[in-house]
Amino acid sequence: MAAAPVSLSGRFKGSFAYFTIKDRLPQILTRVIDTLHRHKNEFFEKHGEKGVEAEKRAISFLSKLRNELQTDKPMIPLNDELPDTPIWNQYLEYQRNVSNGNGQPSWFQSPWLYVECYMYRRIHEALIHNPPIDDFDPFMEAKIQSFFESQQAIIAVCTYLQELLKNIEDLNENQLKEEFFKLLQVSLWGNRCDLSISAGEDNSQKSSLLQSLNDFKSFILVDDMENLWSLLLNSKKRTTTKESITRVDMILDNAGFELITDLVLANFLSSSKLATEVHFHGKCIPWFVSDTTKHDFNWTLKQLQSANHMWMSRCGMNWEGNLKKGVWVYHDHMFWTLPHEFSSMAQVAPDLYAELQKSSVIIFKGDLNYRKLTGDRKWEFTVPFHQALNKFHPAPLCSIRTLKAEIQFCLLALP
Ligand SMILES: O=P(O)(O)OC[C@H]1O[C@](O)(CO)[C@@H](O)[C@@H]1O
Ligand SMILES: [Mn+2]
């Protein structure tokens, strides 16, 4: 098999990677600095002068980081005490070795995937270094605002689900398949609501998606819904005896409306018995502006339960119940916030790889997961997706992603 092509990088002027590193990442950093500035009084009220001092130090750290980025300085090792720090610093050494003498790993010369992930980890380092604001999520405000801006769309999709559940037992196989395809597409288009692509600008879902699915159909470039349906249906038919299970793993992406669409899809899979277990995988630190952390996941369930809308609160209660019963499980392994391509998971995080091997099908949400699945390299569009996976295959898998970066393939891998 031919060697894997080079990584997408800011060294390719005019590429989306170049535009992202040159313009978008500094915008995101500036927005983080502004957010810290705006929370100065809150830090003072909560922590007194110590909070204000910590805020000043974090801002100075982030301003220095922005200058490093904008002037293409070499990447520097992390020096906080977090468990992933040695892995990040080993990865920097690896980048130094593979740069084969083309100088130090730097923002515009190194792989885009690495430098973008590295920026979010350095943002976390800026806070970790500065207690007592070390637990502050600089993206929380934007995630919460995006949730509330999407209220109408959330009400519509929760209402649709609850109406569907009333007679789900009476649906025949074709009707079930039709509903499955609808909710898959809602989860797909929910991925447009990502605050990284908008550099933090509002990117919430204003209208109900369910009425627009036909309008969006022609924008689906690669459609393997039939294969995914067959895989789940065959697994359901095999799950006759008690002990056999159909486990679906959802590698989550953005909080807010997209997370609701993923939970709605998961509820449908559980209620239709297409899945006997659903495992959700979130991020262990704030990531790519709107990616879901455990706090975001739990906040969303609580927010729904306390909503003054019957179907929203019903969803929140049911979903919390599924977690309590253990039919739904939430994980947040540190691997998801490392810079590694997924093809190195078996070496870097064998425990996570083994966990995913228990799955009947793994659904990867979003653009960043797609980039990590395929190594974020300059593949020809005609290369089969499974080739780009580079032997990463813990279980049958698929990607549900709205295209936000140059990388794209013609086929999805499932079986
Ligand atoms: O939330 P998603 O779908 O992973 O999108 C994040 C992606 O968007 C981008 O901002 C666009 O390139 C990338 O940084 C990242 O891959
Ligand atoms: Mn995201």
TrEMBL record:
<keyword id="KW-0489">Methyltransferase</keyword>
<dbReference type="GO" id="GO:0005634">
    <property type="term" value="C:nucleus"/>
</dbReference>
<dbReference type="GO" id="GO:0103026">
    <property type="term" value="F:fructose-1-phosphatase activity"/>
</dbReference>
<comment type="function">
    <text>Metal-dependent phosphatase that shows phosphatase activity against several substrates, including fructose-1-phosphate and fructose-6-phosphate. Its preference for fructose-1-phosphate, a strong glycating agent that causes DNA damage rather than a canonical yeast metabolite, suggests a damage-control function in hexose phosphate metabolism. Has also been shown to have O-methyltransferase activity that methylates glutamate residues of target proteins to form gamma-glutamyl methyl ester residues. Possibly methylates PCNA, suggesting it is involved in the DNA damage response.</text>
</comment>
<keyword id="KW-0533">Nickel</keyword>
<dbReference type="GO" id="GO:0032259">
    <property type="term" value="P:methylation"/>
</dbReference>
<keyword id="KW-0808">Transferase</keyword>
<keyword id="KW-0464">Manganese</keyword>
<dbReference type="GO" id="GO:0008983">
    <property type="term" value="F:protein-glutamate O-methyltransferase activity"/>
</dbReference>
<dbReference type="GO" id="GO:0006974">
    <property type="term" value="P:DNA damage response"/>
</dbReference>
<dbReference type="GO" id="GO:0097023">
    <property type="term" value="F:fructose 6-phosphate aldolase activity"/>
</dbReference>
<dbReference type="InterPro" id="IPR036075">
    <property type="entry name" value="ARMT-1-like_metal-bd_sf"/>
</dbReference>
<dbReference type="Pfam" id="PF01937">
    <property type="entry name" value="ARMT1-like_dom"/>
</dbReference>
<dbReference type="InterPro" id="IPR002791">
    <property type="entry name" value="ARMT1-like_metal-bd"/>
</dbReference>
<keyword id="KW-0949">S-adenosyl-L-methionine</keyword>
<dbReference type="InterPro" id="IPR039763">
    <property type="entry name" value="ARMT1"/>
</dbReference>
<feature type="domain" description="Damage-control phosphatase ARMT1-like metal-binding">
    <location>
        <begin position="20"/>
        <end position="408"/>
    </location>
</feature>
<keyword id="KW-0479">Metal-binding</keyword>
<keyword id="KW-0378">Hydrolase</keyword>
<comment type="similarity">
    <text>Belongs to the damage-control phosphatase family. Sugar phosphate phosphatase III subfamily.</text>
</comment>
<dbReference type="GO" id="GO:0046872">
    <property type="term" value="F:metal ion binding"/>
</dbReference>
<protein>
    <recommendedName>
        <fullName>Sugar phosphate phosphatase</fullName>
        <ecNumber>2.1.1.-</ecNumber>
        <ecNumber>3.1.3.-</ecNumber>
    </recommendedName>
</protein>
